Amino acid sequence: MAVADAPRSPPIPLRGSRVPGLGEQSAARGDGVKGAAPRDGARSAARRGGAGAERLRRTFIECDLDGDGYLSREDFKVAVLSLCGYKPSKTETDHLMASVKEKNLPGMPFDEFRRAVSTRLASVDFDDETRRIFTAFDTCCRGFLTVEDFRKAFSLVAPHLSGQTILETFRETDRDLDGRVSYRDFETAMAARRGCR
Fold it and tell me: Mind telling me which CDD domains this protein's record contains (predicted)?
């Protein structure tokens, strides 16, 4: 079944509406939607629904307000907000819509949308995982980690590691060598680890 032939949900009103996947989060279009992501709600919603093709297709159809099988620039922003929990910046939107412009299409077709959003969903999941792990290490809620935090965490999850290995790991993660691992330090180390997979 083609996207245009698929059963449609009622169109999403422009102001104060519910965005598919965000529950009660408001979806004011345009300048009313700020770039800050609703931290837990949107990401949890994205995780609950998964990044499956059916969910992407359903969101595409719900956000294709005129039903022509293409997402306008504004429709695309609402769809990304719905799935990823953040409104894409003008630069990001320009970049993602560039191929649409080059092909002289009236908007973004489903296949382009699926490619664009799938990579963002993977990134959102990785960011969420990194934040959860950092929070688990930061048992004192200080916003940074000490070598003692590393020792406690590793003793629970990898008790076989030597104290020397834990200390070396801490030193490698503490990029500015101030004796504290900030979230940014931790995020950088996790991203490097992710690149090795």
Answer: EFh
